[in-house]
Fold this protein.
Amino acid sequence: GAGVSQTPSNKVTEKGKYVELRCDPISGHTALYWYRQSLGQGPEFLIYFQGTGAADDSGLPNDRFFAVRPEGSVSTLKIQRTERGDSAVYLCASSLAEGANYEQYFGPGTRLTVT
Amino acid sequence: GENVEQHPSTLSVQEGDSAVIKCTYSDSASNYFPWYKQELGKRPQLIIDIRSNVGEKKDQRIAVTLNKTAKHFSLHITETQPEDSAVYFCAAKEPGGSYIPTFGRGTSLIVHP
């Protein structure tokens, strides 16, 4: 079946602009995670959803970052007043349910470049 | 919170040799340790994992060992092939309801034909 998809695959924006990154999880997966991966680094946790609610947003770096998942499926990561330091690959992952017994499946990522 | 250190950052081997990647973690309560393979420009994919009640796990040419006392775990790849070339990430998860792993910085494995 279809895996996790993310759009756009690449996004170039100017400093100070607003961007939205979309994640379509695997159908039926209730848990959804957002990570940020900088060059030469491992994925860094941002936020986790169980259903429609953000169960853990402790990884969001500041209040310019926000994410929603209004219907418990598609999620959007929103970044306001982008800064050059926000440039990274933003990865989304989903799992059938929460917990280590359920494998996380990653999407291909959105490469964000802030100029 | 958890801190995961991974070594080496780059590993170059000849085809057929073995490769070993090592990770240490800081939180003795961590109980789940997955390994991911990420090919250039592609998504991370889980290749093997181990839980804290097991010391070793094998899957064909890949094995993972865990030493809870020393708080370190390792990935072993035998009979390496060029298609094993990728970045490998270790991760550790603390107990809790959600699965939010802390990742190492990655090891770039290069297998020369």
Q: What stands out?
A: The radius of gyration of chain B is 14 Å. The CA atoms of residues 62 and 77 of chain B lie 5 Å apart.
